[in-house]
Amino acid sequence: MIQNSETQTAKFFILNIVFTVAFLILNKAAIAQPILPKMENFTPQDYNANRQNWGIDIDNKGVVYIANNKGLLVYNGQSWQLYELPDKTIVRSVLCYNNMIFTGSYEEFGVWKKNTTGALYYTSLSGPKEKIQKFQNEQFWEITSFNSAIYFMSFARGVYKYTEGKPIEYIKNSFGVTSIATYKNKLIFGNRLEGLQELKDGNLINFELSNTSKVTTKAELVATKKNNLFFYSPQFGGYIYSDGALRNLGDDLNTLLKTAVLNKVVFIDQNCLAFGTLKEGVVLYNLKDNSFKKIIKTYGLENNVVHDLNFNHGNLWAALDTGITKINIDSPLSFYRDITGKLGTVYDILYFKSKYYLASNTGVYVLGTKKELTLIEGTEGQAWDLKVMNNQVIVGHNNGCFIIEGERVLIKTSNNGVFKTVRVPGKNNLYVQGTYYGINKLQFKDGIWNSKPIKNVPLIINNIIFESDSVCWATNPYKGVYRIFFDKHLNKVNKIISFSWIKNLTEYRSYIHALDKNILIYNSGEWLTYYNDKDSIGAFQPFKDFGKQMIVGNDNDGLWFLDERHDNIFHRKKHNLINDYTLTDPGIENTALIDFKKVRAVSDSTFLIMIKDGFAFYNRRQSKTKKDESPKPEIVKVKTTKRSYAISGEMNLELHFEESRHLSIEAYLPFGYNEQIFYSIENKLKRKGQLENGNLKLNNLNAGTYELTLYPFAKTSRGNHKKLKIRVLPPWYLSNLMLVFYLFFIVFVIKVYHRMLKLKMRRQRLREKKSLIIENMNKLEHMEKNNLKKEIEYRKKELNQTATTLIKKNETIILLRNELKRLLKVSPNKSRTNKLIDFSNNKKAAEMDWLIFERNFNELHEEFFSKLLASYPCLTKKDLKLCAFIKTGLCSKEIAQLMNITTRGVEIHRYRLRKKLNLETEVKLHNFLMLF
Predict the structure, then answer these.
(1) N or C, which end of the chain is more exposed by having fewer CB within 10 Å?
(2) Rg of the chain over CA atoms, in angstroms?
(3) What pLDDT digit, counting tens, does each position of 900-915 carry?
(4) pLDDT tens, residue by residue, 579-608
(5) pLDDT score of 932 more than 60
(6) CA-to-CA distance for 114 and 475, rounded, in angstroms?
(7) How far apart are CA 510 and CA 530, in angstroms?
(8) Could you tell me the CA-to-CA distances from 536 to 211, 421, 527, 709 in Å, in that order?
(9) What gap in Å lies between CA 932 and CA 928, rounded to an integer?
(10) End-to-end CA, the chain
C-alpha cells in the first residue's frame, strides 16, 4: 500500500510540472491583479510561537485555536496565548466542540478544558505512550465531530473514534482516508485509495455516488455546505454533487488546483469555495459564473503554502507554513493595491465606463475589467484631478489639461499646470480651472475644446467653488481664501477680495465647499462660512462640533468626513448631520496624504476611497446588512495580586481589599478581531478609557461597589454592553465585626467621656461656687475695707476738726485773756477783770478739751496708747498727749495752744520725748509714731 502511494506521488510530481507549464500558457488572467478583500497577517513575532501552523478552528465566541509546531495557539482577537503539550511535541490538528478543544499530535490526541481560572489544561485520550503501542509513529492530521463522537484521522493507519466514557474505537479499513466531512447527516470520507466512502453501522462503505460515477475514484478531499458536496481527486479534478446532480468545476480551475497542489477546501457559502494550495496560496471560486481569483503572497498573503482553512463569521482563516492570515471575505471593504510599485501615490480616483482611472504622482492609470494596471501614454508626471465632462475624462496635470477617451489622450488643452476643473453654474459646456498661474477658462464648443487664461489673476489657485455664475471662491495653498468677481463672459476678473488677514485662516491649505447655499471654509480645525448680509466670515454653527473633521466626499444622502485626529472616515446624513456609519478599518487609515484623501461615489451604495497605492472599494449595502451584528465583549478572567477568577456569563465579583491593590481584567470582542474595546466605571468617581490589547489594569480600588461596562467602538447600544459588578470588601479593620467593636468602643468612650464630663462639670460648678463665695467675700471685705477707710477718713476729719475747733477756741481765749490783761490797768472793776482772767486760765476747761480730743483720738487709733506704753512704759500722761497731737499731724504752735504752753515749751517737750523714745536725729518723730 505504501509503495503504491509513493509511486503515485512520483507520477503526480511529473504531471504537476506539465500542468504548471500549461497553466502559465493558458491563464493570462493570472498576471492580472484582482480587487481583494482586506487581509491581516500574523507572524511568529506576533504570536510568539513557531512559524509553521497546521490546523485551525474557531469556537462559537470567535476565539481562534491554531495547531502550531510549538503547541496550541489561542487568539481571542486581542491577545495571543500558547499552551504546550506535556511532552512539548507538535500539534497537527484542532477541533472546537462543546466548550472543549480536541487536538491531534504525534502519537497523541487529547482534549483541552478550562479550569477555574480560565486557563486551558490538557487531558490525553490516547493513554500513556509507554502502554499503548498502536499509535507509534502516527500523526493525527484531522479531527471531526459527528453524533456526539469525535473522529481522529491519521495518515499512517486511519480513523479513531472517541466517545466520552467509552474506550477508543478504530474504524476498520479506514487506511487511506485523507479527509472527513458531514453531509446530510452522513459522515463522508475522502479516501485516496477507495474514493468517496461513508460510515454506516461502524463500517466504511461506498458513497451513493461511487456506484454510478467513476469520478469519485481516489477522491482525496471532501467539503460540504448544506446540500452541496465537494470532492476532489488529482485524476478527475473537482466536482460538486448536489441533489443528485454532478457538476465539474471546469478545466481552468482544475488545472490550477492540480499545478498548485490542492491541500484544503472549505465552503464560503452555497456559491463560493475557498481552496488552500501548497504553491499558489488561496483560490476563491464563484460557482455562479465559474470565475476564480488567487490570493497569493504578492497580493498580501503571508505565505503561499496553505496547510488549513477555516471560514467563520465572514472571515477566512489560513494556517500557513509561515504565519497566519485572516481574509475578511464578507467585509464591505475590498482593496486594490499596486504590487508593482509603478503607480506611486494616488491623488484622485474615478470610475467611468467600467474602468477605474487613477491620478498619481507618476501619471494617469486605467484599470480595466481584466484588472491590469495600464499607464495612459502621455500622462507621465504629477496628476491632481479627474472629472467626467461631456462623456470624456478631464485630467488636471502638472503639464496641463488632458482630455482622455478610453485609454488614450485625445487632446491637451493647456500647457499650464492644472489643479482642478469646475463647471460654471448654468453652463453645461463652460468650465474654469485652477492652475499654477491663475485661472483658465475651458469651453467645449462645436465639438472642440478651447482653453485660455482669465486675465487679472496673479495667483496660484488650487480649488474653486462658485457662489453664482460670475462670483467664485478660490483657495491658494499658501495665502488663504479669495472671493473673485468675473466679468459677464468670464474673460477677465474685475475684483479679488482676500481674506488672508483673518486669524482662523492662517494655517497652510484652506479647504472650501458648497453646502446648500452656504460657502464653507475649513482651516485650523474650524469650520467657517461667509455671511453675505454682513459681508464677513464667521463660525458655521451647524458644524461647530466638527473640529478637526474635514469633508472628503459627498453623495446624494450626505457628506463624507475625515477625522484628522484618528484618520477615520465617516458618513453624515445631510438633513440632520448625524453619523450614519463609520469606516475604521486599518486598511484605509494612515494610507494616504490627509490633504488629498477622497471618497468618490460609484453608485448609491458603492464608493471608492483613495489610499496611497491604490483604492478601497466600499459596499454600503453590504455594510448595512452587517450593521445589526453587534456582539458584546467577553471577559476572560480577572487577575488579582493573589489569584485569578474565570468569568462566566453575568456575574458579580467579590474581592478582598488586599486583592484590589492590583487588578487586571482580560477581555475580547467575539469575532471583533483587533477592534477597539472601551470601558466605563461607575462609582463615586467616573472613569472612561480604552483597553490596551484587551487588558485593563485597575490599581488601589477603595472599598465599595464598582460597575464595569465594556463596549465596542461605535456600538453603544445597551444590547452589546458587558457589565461586571465588582465589590471590593473593606479591609479587616473595617469589617462588620470590627465595626460592631468600634461601635461598642465608641459607646464606651462616650459613656466614659460623659461621666468624666459630668464629673468635670460638677467640679467646675464647685469651683465656680467657691470662686463665687470668695468673690463675694472679697467684695464684702472690700466693701468693709472701703467703709472702714471712709470711717477712718471721717474720724480723721472729725479729729482734725475737733483739734481745729479746740485750737481756735484756745486762740480766742488767749486773745480775750490778753485783752483783759491790757484792760486791767484801766478797768474800773479790776477784781471782776481778774476773775475773768482767772477763768480763762481754768484748768478744768483744758482738761475737758483733752478728754474730747482723747475720745475722738482713741476711736481712730484705739490701741495707740497701749502699744506705746507697752514699748515705752516711762512715758508720762503729758508725753502721751504730746504723742497724740504729733501723730494727728499738728504743728508745734497748734500743740502749744492745746497744751496751754508756749511754742518753746512744746519744742523742749518734743526734745525730751525723743530722748525717752531713744530716737536718732534723722528719724522724724511723726513718722516713728505712725508705726503705732
Answers:
(1) N
(2) 60
(3) 778 888 888 888 888 8
(4) 877 776 666 665 555 667 789 888 888 899
(5) yes
(6) 63
(7) 14
(8) 87, 27, 14, 47
(9) 8
(10) 155
